């Protein structure tokens, strides 16, 4: 952290409706994270949103009385130069692309989801080359910076960065912090009294230890059939005898894998009843931006909380604080495996508890990995590895291997048709797949 | 091999219609495998078949002029005592159980197959305790004997024996030898000019090297979309662009995983059109036994070849010969992993090329393991480990975990219903699951 | 920690001259470690010392005004029953045995040292069976207790406990905390601003990362040829070009391995000049006990600090505090390897940074293991494994293998003679080796 | 093997006195190894010897009546072009350098040996860069050729080639074949009835299985205290209780490690009594060359057998035959570890049983690795890795690390002095260490 006048922080995709969350966090924890410059960066097409949210950010800072300079720019390189922390939150192809990711698979009887399955794969193919491009700039202009990657599929994007660049990157998700908060509330203890062990990948983890004040609460958690469920995933109760013998509390994303039939039926019905979910999200966003435009608004509006990204800001600010101060506390992050999950390659990205030192996260060894979960972790990682390689090469055969080997895709035949249709639908965002 | 007067060989399930195949092999290779006693063992319920096939065996030996004594018995312990080689080929629950294994899953839209999926799992639950029981006798009465296990699911049964007994056991399948034969014919070379590397599990392998006279023929094999197909699996052509980028020639059983939809449709149609396949097999067997009863028949009848078990005899006799003589030749066998597939446990049973020394098979390291195949291997092995543990404990929760985690089973919901119905249907053969 | 009235702590070898150190720590940190009962245990032969030091302990507690009950006993089982923490500090054979450990090898031109080489091996052979015996009591009477083992050779003793008992044991040494203190002083920073990565075994580690406020100070440390040297090891300067390319700051015990000739010469000269060091230590102890007898003394005497065991108390109390409170801080401990040093077995005991959770230490992965250090670590661990097995079996052949394979022993010939003489000299303490 | 007119074989260091051995083998096995061209290559300084031995080779071929063309050349590139097999047998610095390798260490009380210890290290430093240079030519001119490396230290040279080039190289030693021959003679069985498992490195192996006709003869071998001893190593009997509990028959080179004192005394005495052994060898060679000059000599002279290189020719010709014909037989070779010894890196060169396929050797997994041997293997491999890196970089610090970490070198102090003197003595052959 060379900048002794304070930190330079860059938010790529700064025009996102989530940005006020982040800004609020930066203000609240300024004593521990002395930011001097905050750069919000976006692309030309997002300039209007950038200005709207950026001006709200400026008003929030002004109200706080802190001396943070807020910059709004489309000049990514200028923003990155000399940065201490860079965070990314972007959506290549915007909500329209998400809409296609979620609906095209449904036509083939396949789960339509924005971070896993064929939908998540398309998001990875669109996003990875853009992120790698940003990383080239970071390597040149801020080689010591930490890149906090929130961009989904966060595990795959982080793995691509780890494999193809020298950027110091960490993938982040709000699910782990959400679980801790819930347990903290349920048992009425401070979060630092809880030790929860996460095993698996981003959006594909099992929590195999839940110690509250040193006491094992896992059996209790596994007898709770409603389980831990985020609001953005349809409620489907777990089969009690399955849950109790699973060996770990499943991530809510695992319902796509373990209850594929019910989840698919629900998605198909939702689409018929409510239309494309991406359209709904679009409306929520439009309303938020309308609020943000109010020149008298100088704090994060309540409505943002309903948006679904709870704890994103907390996760990001916590990590920056710990890296900056070398607090050696434990956080659940997406980092290189390096032997932690002994059946995956060293350079696979996994979601795992880490001690956050000043020189980066050190993953903690896993004390229990139930037999049950190994095959599915490996099956999904196989898909991820193939899809990442397809994303950086534009190789259609690899893309077909990736999609066929995804556990949610039922056959080569379906994979082949889905792939052709989805690649075509994303043509504008997949230059590597449509070279002449 | 203590018996210097010649070898004692025991065939458990000796009343099988395949036995004349084996006997023919023993006669043909007597010079290299000097058998003195051949014991055919079966259960009371199979006594009639044992006598029928056993008397044919006696006539075949008589015709050969060799001094082999053939014994027919239901006294398993007497047969095992002091044996040098024991082979098993049994079907707990007989063809009726197979019929149920193949048809019940179809009602739930799941593949019905006798060695994999829910059907194969039921076969494992029925068979493993019986085999372990036999192994207790071998440990006591013939601790130095080699047990050649043909009983399906051969990989799972062998893994159970490796984990729970001290018997020297090797699992065997006719598929690898069949592949070598086909390549030998296609390129007009002797089998010993071919090096084919098998990666994976029993009935779940990919052939990742096909060297003919030292030349790499893999690309050629991967461009053959009809692929290598045994007669007992419906013909479904491979997608050419999938096949060429898969990295290995897939076992024909992989069609159940890669073309689940088409294979399922075919099974459902077959059932409607031709009825239960087990019934058809039953008719074929009945006809064979009618032939065997002919007191003038003293050789293996031609009709047996159509039965589908080509090369079983050759595989068994080859292995016995090599163990007996310590020939150090290479055979593809089912043995303990011990680090060969680096992401599976040491005690997992895998299908792999081995050098057959006098003291048993030494597996050869794999030179290529395509990323593509890792996830599926691990997913199926996860199911296998759970199912084996369920089989030896009679634990229904474990059985549910096993069935749910099988890649051919679409959800906990389906697994739960299928499990209950199939356990009930097999009640007579699953004492551990129906204890009071 | 079931005891809500406060903790029960047991010190086995409570009559040690170090005990006042421990008691002082317990008093100082009582707020974080609410001790209710302190049991000092010793054997009959040590009863006088136990009473002397125990009465001092009682006076110290009284002076503090805390309500801690101090018990002095030779009834080990009564002491252990229901304990929360047990620490051991014992010397089987007392200082006389140490004298022999340090002097007999010198006759053969071999390093005489109390924790490594032939001397350390004898200490291990004497001590391990006694510790395992204590562990049987703990398994029965306090199965949830944590055993903090300071008894040298601490790594080997802890490995024996991990391998042969179910006791939750952690090995401890004061060297790591001493290094941190020194760096803290040198750079004038708080200890929690330092991240030092320890690689290796107890008394055989290299420090491969020294981050002070996140800055890499390793090159600076490796250019300091006088290095870090404890007062109880003769000063021998490191060769500067060797040190700078070694990849880690060597433990001072490594001088026995890297400067064997000079260290041996020094030991031989010392013996001639000053006599047996154990005798000197004995005198220091006698003087300490004379001080302890003073009924007006009610605090730790200054003279104890010169004794050489600096930081022992701090290490012990820190660890108990962190286990009790689940502070998740980082401490350097001796625990089971479980994959951290990838070339050693999972059940080897290593010295490594750990996060101390309420349920025990989780070792942190190593970020750098220089090629240079691997062979020596493995060579010493090989000796340790063989010696531990010899200690629990009393097998002389294993003992010979252990001694011959110790890197400080030059040949089978020397090992054989040394072993015979040293076993005989320790006959009274090695019942397993002298059975009829 | 593209050359359908017959094979082109190149012997680098063709002027060696061993060459007639090789030529005799080529003639004897011509039916299985149809050589068409034999190129003997040497450097200018060796031209006279090349012509002498080369003309003998021509007379031997002529006598055989085979149509093999023998070429004598100093044009290495011309020789290599299009070669099928290349073997190397060279001595950079000739016998004079060997003399220094063997005698300088003795002055410091360190073993002087041409393939291990400081002497072997100097040989490695001189040799590796020359071999890598040859490999550049092979990569360009004969990329499909097999390089059989006999040049000592064969394990280290082969590891350097595996790490720094793409040449298909195999290291070879005559010790394993010698052991098999001895067992074959002792038990009066054919070599193919013996399975001996070699564990370790070149000149540092233990034989942990000796099966003769499937029977375990290891205990018998371990009770033979005179052991297996080659004529070029002084006879020192093994300690019987050490040998019987070692877990494997030690290579005779292990006497340098296990009986360092006696071996050193013997070397020092020999030097005083007989003078430099390299001088003796030189005389033997001179006499051989005098014989070779005889224009009437057209077969290998009996005297060559006394020279000490028994079975070199057999080892080389066996390997070429098996590679050419793809015989899948088992030979003990020096190849990349790739997981076989689980504590060494994948790219370490080990000595191990291999199945020799047409596409190269496949190492066989080890069935027993005694704890005893692990530390020493790792310690020596650590030295080897460091020395190889020193050889290719000319880095003196690395060279000091390598020498200090060699188990035969007693301290940094000795290593430092020895290194300086030996580097200086080899200045002419170490351009990388003496750059300006």
From TrEMBL, chains A, B, C, D:
Q: Does the keyword Ion transport apply?
A: no
Note whether NAD occurs among the keywords: yes
This entry's comment on the bound cofactor is: Binds 1 NAD(+) per subunit.
One annotated GO biological process: carbohydrate metabolic process
What does the UniProt keyword field contain?
Answer: Glycosidase, Hydrolase, Manganese, Metal-binding, NAD
Gene3D superfamilies membership: Lactate dehydrogenase/glycoside hydrolase, family 4, C-terminal, NAD(P)-binding Rossmann-like Domain
Q: Which InterPro entries match?
A: GlycHydrolase_4_CS, Glyco_hydro_4, Glyco_hydro_4_C, Lactate_DH/Glyco_Ohase_4_C, NAD(P)-bd_dom_sf
State the needed cofactors, names only.
Answer: NAD(+)
Family classification: Belongs to the glycosyl hydrolase 4 family.
PANTHER family of this UniProt entry? Answer: 6-PHOSPHO-BETA-GLUCOSIDASE, 6-PHOSPHO-BETA-GLUCOSIDASE-RELATED
Protein name as catalogued? 6-phospho-beta-glucosidase
What is this protein's gene name?
celF
């Amino acid at each position: 952290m060379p900048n002794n006048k304070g930190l330079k922080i860059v938010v790529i995709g700064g025009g996102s409706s989530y940005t006020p969350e982040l800004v609020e966090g930066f203000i609240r924890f300024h004593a521990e994270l002395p930011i001097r410059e905050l750069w919000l960066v976006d692309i030309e097409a997002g300039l209007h949103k950038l200005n709207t949210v950026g001006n709200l950010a400026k008003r929030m800072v002004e109200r706080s009385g802190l001396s943070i300079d807020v910059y709004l720019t489309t000049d990514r390189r200028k923003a990155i130069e000399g940065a201490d922390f860079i965070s990314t939150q972007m959506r290549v192809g915007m909500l329209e692309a998400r809409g296609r990711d979620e609906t095209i698979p449904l036509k083939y009887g396949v789960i339509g989801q924005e971070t896993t399955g064929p939908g998540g794969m398309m998001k990875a193919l669109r996003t990875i080359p853009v992120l790698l491009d940003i990383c080239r700039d970071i390597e040149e202009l801020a080689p010591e910076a930490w890149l906090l990657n929130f961009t989904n599929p966060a595990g795959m994007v982080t793995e691509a960065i780890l494999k193809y660049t020298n950027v110091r990157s960490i993938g982040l998700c709000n699910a782990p912090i959400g679980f801790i908060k819930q347990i903290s509330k349920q048992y009425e203890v401070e979060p630092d009294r809880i030790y929860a062990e996460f095993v698996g990948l981003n959006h594909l983890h099992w929590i195999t230890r839940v110690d509250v004040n040193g006491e094992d609460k896992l059996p209790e958690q596994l007898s709770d059939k409603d389980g831990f469920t985020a609001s953005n995933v349809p409620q489907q109760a777990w089969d009690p005898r399955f849950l109790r013998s699973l060996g770990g509390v499943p991530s809510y994303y695992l319902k796509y894998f373990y209850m594929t039939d019910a989840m698919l039926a629900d998605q198909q019905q939702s689409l018929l009843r409510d239309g494309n979910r991406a359209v709904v999200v679009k409306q929520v966003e439009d309303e938020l931006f309308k609020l943000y435009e109010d020149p008298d608004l100088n704090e994060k509006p309540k409505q943002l909380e309903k948006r679904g990204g709870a704890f994103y800001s907390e996760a990001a600010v916590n990590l920056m604080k710990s890296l900056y101060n070398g607090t050696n506390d434990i956080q659940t992050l997406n980092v290189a495996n390096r032997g932690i999950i002994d059946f995956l390659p060293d350079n696979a990205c996994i979601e795992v508890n880490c001690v956050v030192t000043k020189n980066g996260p050190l993953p903690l060894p896993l004390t229990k990995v139930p037999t049950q979960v190994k095959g599915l972790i490996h099956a999904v990682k196989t898909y991820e590895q193939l899809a990442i390689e397809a994303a950086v090469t534009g190789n259609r055969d690899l893309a077909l291997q990736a999609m066929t080997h995804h556990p949610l895709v039922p056959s080569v035949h379906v994979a082949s048709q889905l792939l052709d249709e989805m690649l075509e639908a994303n043509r504008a965002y997949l230059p590597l797949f449509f070279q002449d």
